[in-house]
UniProtKB/TrEMBL annotation, chain A:
<comment type="subunit">
    <text>Component of the oligosaccharyltransferase (OST) complex.</text>
</comment>
<dbReference type="GO" id="GO:0046872">
    <property type="term" value="F:metal ion binding"/>
</dbReference>
<feature type="domain" description="STT3/PglB/AglB core">
    <location>
        <begin position="588"/>
        <end position="647"/>
    </location>
</feature>
<keyword id="KW-0460">Magnesium</keyword>
<dbReference type="InterPro" id="IPR003674">
    <property type="entry name" value="Oligo_trans_STT3"/>
</dbReference>
<feature type="transmembrane region" description="Helical">
    <location>
        <begin position="247"/>
        <end position="272"/>
    </location>
</feature>
<feature type="transmembrane region" description="Helical">
    <location>
        <begin position="125"/>
        <end position="144"/>
    </location>
</feature>
<keyword id="KW-0325">Glycoprotein</keyword>
<feature type="region of interest" description="Disordered">
    <location>
        <begin position="457"/>
        <end position="510"/>
    </location>
</feature>
TrEMBL record, chain B:
<feature type="transmembrane region" description="Helical">
    <location>
        <begin position="34"/>
        <end position="52"/>
    </location>
</feature>
<keyword id="KW-0808">Transferase</keyword>
<dbReference type="GO" id="GO:0016740">
    <property type="term" value="F:transferase activity"/>
</dbReference>
<comment type="function">
    <text>Subunit of the oligosaccharyl transferase (OST) complex that catalyzes the initial transfer of a defined glycan (Glc(3)Man(9)GlcNAc(2) in eukaryotes) from the lipid carrier dolichol-pyrophosphate to an asparagine residue within an Asn-X-Ser/Thr consensus motif in nascent polypeptide chains, the first step in protein N-glycosylation. N-glycosylation occurs cotranslationally and the complex associates with the Sec61 complex at the channel-forming translocon complex that mediates protein translocation across the endoplasmic reticulum (ER). All subunits are required for a maximal enzyme activity.</text>
</comment>
<keyword id="KW-1133">Transmembrane helix</keyword>
<comment type="pathway">
    <text>Protein modification; protein glycosylation.</text>
</comment>
<keyword id="KW-0812">Transmembrane</keyword>
<feature type="transmembrane region" description="Helical">
    <location>
        <begin position="98"/>
        <end position="116"/>
    </location>
</feature>
<comment type="similarity">
    <text>Belongs to the DAD/OST2 family.</text>
</comment>
Length: 791, 117
């Protein structure tokens, strides 16, 4: 008969049409992902277009120098490198104190390209590493969100992450810093963890450990992973979601992850000895106890299980108390309870300002203001709560992880501006989920109510004909588009229950399903308007992201520009000064400056510096700070004892550059005063303020920083008006006795001075006053009274 | 007195029921359990040795203990995946579980050999 034949023919075409649609969806997803990668790469190229392909800021210059060394000398010399060009005379063990992930990645890319005979320079590879890895990060976000909620949410989250300004700020082309690859490693590790949790496959657990190893290599923020995952495991156990997949996801990660973390020289034995890792060990023990309890519960009868519980509780409690007492004694014996300074400053936001002024002085470590949230994650800030609610409907292991991730990252981003970066992927994932669910609901309502497509009876027939092979052929072809659209929309719901349904009960069930759909559907006009508004919201987000990338985050900060009526001014003073140093001084000359400029000086000027941005030795920085705050002679003696030949100061008073050394002076005083008590901050303050005008204190007017910044400044405009402090300076006419000016850049932004050689003959016999100043200056004595340490 | 006796009886009854329940597990799982026990025992011996002799070189001690703990954990994972009573893993062929186990062990021991020093 015609009817069954067409039905049997119709069902396969229905099925193949379904697979064609799925295949079409897959291909479309692939091309969308490709476009997202291209978008992520190109939105970060503004600085290359506006300025040039140059490395930005301060830290990237160190990474660039390390990468240069790696590409020139090879990996064995890199691991064993002792750098004697920084922290003179202490030096720095680069192999053991740098996170090697970024440099190894860029070095590998450079080596690969060069072996393929594509001769890119190391600088080009370094500049473009960050945009490439941001493309990878958005693909990793797609994979992670797909595991949590599905492909639609994945694509939305990926496109949000490709453009989110907070991530752009740390990964523009030229920002060659650890976060460029670390964020990709973070998201990828989380993806593999969720994948292992969902599938329970040991293969993904192995991959998870390897991805965690890459994260440990790349960034100190890996402690976030090794604390978040145990927290999530604990959450799952406490909420009754323990399963054997959880054990497989967590236990191998701890063992393999700890071993791999201990392999990285920077971490070393800290992987088992510092408090940052104790959470993972504690939860490791807890999950074993829980697994054992579940196993015993499975093989015993309930009565016997109760007996076992009472026995174990009585005995185990005593043992537990003893162990905990020992542990507490061990931990309490260390002054910081085993935590490192940086981690403590995260947990207790006031810790750094009380105890570690260097950490407190970095501007990135300040708490963010409310507008910075809107600037950095924009629209996502109010999509996140909707996403959190969507994660609860339904709550799975993976979505509980997302909720925990966003909660903790919001807290930490509130402590430090720098950690807004960790908030960005979490915000993108939750907002992607929220947007995807909203789009689903709205488009579903629209499709359900489009006039002339479906009524209740036709819906019945279409659905049952897909389940059974019996003929409802007339409506089948008409229902095909409606049915498959429902298929695609409700892809996430289980299809199994529809296939196993009997015909009469199918009709009843389907009727209630159709009823449900009709009740859930929103009014047609409202959903159409909401859809439009959501798209407009996305447009606002895109416009803001592009603006932020172009205007706010693309400044290389080594080259400055300003617009005035005469056009565009370019201030290239930093590179001018470094190249002067490179060409006009000896290779072994030492340069002293504030620690901000250390990395740039070693990388671009290729001269030895006293302190640099690594800030690992507080006393050495305090020595330089004391020298900058002391009068000329004392400062000369300190610098002479450090073999310094040149002193570099940054001065913004002529052009209005606000981040100059005079503005950083309060930190020099504070840090110096923290170690050398003869530097007292109130000596420099007038009415609680640092002033450099005529009301300034005499200590301030005589200190080295003031003199080196304002020497001959009055010659520029006759009145010595400082454009940053907006006042005329106090002491205008003075001479330098122990330093001589050797170079000042075009806009007076960098000034280089040379230490004058010690006099051959000292006039008069007034050695007593000299010995008083030399004993009051800090660590090393020099000049007339040199004590022989061997007597 | 009576409470002690009854608790002793309880303990004995518990012990018996545990024993009989465990005897019912299949042989391949018992072999894996034996392997886990051996690994944990080896780890304990290493800890006792370190406590008596001292912890230098620390990386060797760490890699030794963690390799034992690691193989124990991976064997437990294998046992979970191969156990026929586990509903979540009934679609997983035991050969695949064993292949994953071997791969993870390979990675673990590669890292151990590197860290042993």
């Amino acid at each position: 008969m015609a009817a069954p034949e067409t039905s049997t023919a119709a069902v396969p075409t229905l099925h193949t049409n379904n697979t064609v649609r799925n295949a079409f969806g897959g291909v479309l997803s692939f091309f969308i992902l490709l476009l997202i990668g291209v978008l992520a790469f190109s939105i970060r190229l503004f600085s290359v277009i506006k300025y040039e392909s140059v490395i930005h800021e301060f830290d990237p210059y160190f990474n660039y120098r390390v990468t240069q060394f790696l590409t020139k000398k090879g990996i064995y010399d890199f691991w064993n490198w002792f750098d004697d060009r920084t922290w003179y005379p202490l030096g720095r063990v680069i192999g053991g104190t740098v996170y090697p992930g970024l440099t190894l990645t860029a070095g590998t890319i450079w080596w690969l390209l060069n072996s393929l005979n594509i001769p890119l320079s190391v600088e080009t590879v370094c500049v473009f590493t960050a945009p490439i890895f941001s493309a990878f990060a958005s693909w990793a976000t797609y994979l992670l969100t797909k595991e949590v909620k599905g492909a639609g949410a994945g694509l939305t989250a990926a496109v949000l992450l490709a453009m989110v300004p907070s991530y752009i700020s740390r990964s523009v082309a030229g920002s060659y810093d650890n976060e460029a690859v670390a964020i990709f490693a973070l998201i990828f590790t989380f993806y593999l963890y969720i994948k292992t949790l969902n599938t329970g496959s040991l293969f993904y657990a192995t991959l998870n450990s390897i991805a965690y190893f890459y994260m440990v290599c790349s960034w100190g923020g890996y402690t976030f992973i090794i604390n978040l995952i145990p927290m999530h495991v604990l959450l799952c156990i406490v909420t009754g979601r323990y399963s054997s997949r959880l054990y497989i996801a967590y236990a191998p990660l701890v063992v393999l992850g700890t071993l791999l973390a201990a392999l990285v020289p920077v971490v070393g034995f800290n992987a088992v000895m510092t408090s940052e890792h104790f959470a993972s060990f504690l939860v490791f023990i807890i999950i074993h106890v829980v697994a054992f309890v579940y196993y015993i519960k499975g093989i015993l009868s309930p009565k016997m299980f109760k007996v076992a519980v009472t026995l174990v509780v009585s005995v185990g409690l005593a043992v537990c108390c003893a162990v905990i007492a020992v542990l507490i004694a061990l931990v309490a014996s260390s002054p910081t309870k085993g935590w490192s300074g940086r981690s403590l400053s995260l947990l207790d936001p006031t810790y750094a300002s009380k105890y570690i002024p260097i950490i407190a002085s970095v501007s990135e470590h300040q708490p963010p203001t409310w507008p910075s949230y809107f600037m950095d994650i924009n629209v996502l800030a109010f999509l996140v709560p909707a996403g959190i609610i969507a994660c609860f409907l339904p709550l799975t292991d993976a979505s509980s992880f997302v909720v925990l991730y966003i909660a903790t990252s919001v807290y930490f981003s509130g402590v430090m501006v720098r950690l807004m970066l960790v908030l960005a992927p979490a915000a993108c994932i939750t907002s992607g989920i929220a947007l995807s669910e909203a789009f689903d609901a709205l488009t579903g309502s629209i499709k359900f109510q489009l006039p002339g497509v479906s009524t209740d009876a036709e819906v019945d027939a279409g659905e049952t004909s897909s389940d059974t092979t019996e003929a409802q052929n007339d409506e089948v072809k008409a229902e095909k588009p409606e049915e498959t659209s429902k298929d695609r929309r409700s892809k996430k719901s289980k299809k199994k229950e529809r296939e196993h349904v009997e015909r009469p009960s199918a009709k009843a069930k389907v009727k209630t399903k159709a009823e449900k759909k009709r009740l859930l559907a929103l009014p047609l006009e409202a959903s159409a308007v909401s859809l439009l508004l959501l798209i407009v919201l996305g447009a606002f987000y895109v416009v803001h992201c592009v603006w932020a990338a172009a205007e706010a985050y693309s400044a290389p900060s080594i080259v400055l520009t300003s617009r005035s009526r005469d056009g565009l001014h370019v201030f290239d003073d930093f590179r001018e000064a470094y190249s002067w140093l490179r060409h006009n001084t000896d290779v072994d000359d030492k340069v002293a400056s504030w620690w901000d400029y250390g990395y740039q000086t070693t990388a671009m000027a290729n001269r030895t510096v006293i302190v640099d941005n690594n800030t690992w030795n507080n006393t050495h920085i305090a020595t330089v700070g004391t020298a900058m705050s002391s009068p000329e002679k004392a400062a000369w003696e300190i610098f002479h004892s450090l073999d310094v030949k040149y002193v570099l100061v940054v001065f913004g008073g002529l052009v209005g550059y606000p981040s100059d050394d005079i503005n950083k002076f309060l930190w020099m005083v504070r840090i110096g005063g923290g170690v050398f008590p003869h530097i007292k901050e109130p000596d420099y303050l007038r009415d609680g303020q640092y002033r450099i005008d005529s009301q300034a204190t005499p200590t301030m007017l005589n200190c080295l920083m003031y003199k080196l910044s304002y020497y001959r400044f009055v010659e520029t405009d006759g009145k010595a008006y400082d454009k940053v402090r907006r006042t005329e300076i106090g002491k205008k006419y003075f001479k330098l006795t122990h330093f001589e000016e050797v170079f000042t850049t075009h806009h007076w932004m960098v000034r280089i001075y040379k230490l004058k050689a010690p006099k051959n003959r000292i006039r008069g016999k007034t050695k007593k006053s000299k010995s008083k100043t030399s004993s009051s200056s800090s660590s090393k004595t020099s000049g007339t009274k040199k004590k022989n340490p061997w007597h | 007195m009576a409470r002690e006796k009854s608790s002793k009886d309880n303990a004995q009854a518990l012990f018996h029921s545990l024993r009989s329940a465990y005897a019912a597990t299949p042989v391949n799982l018992k072999i894996i359990d034996l392997y886990v026990g051996f690994a944990v025992f080896t780890a304990l011996i290493q800890v006792v040795y370190m406590a008596t002799v001292g912890s230098f070189p620390f990386n060797s001690f760490l890699s030794g203990v963690l390799s034992c703990v690691g193989t124990a954990v991976l064997a437990v994972c294998l046992r979970i995946q191969v156990n026929k009573e586990n509903k979540e893993f009934k679609d997983l062929p035991p050969e695949r579980a064993f292949a994953d186990f071997v791969l993870c062990n390979l990675v673990l021991h590669l890292v151990i050999m590197n860290f042993l020093g």
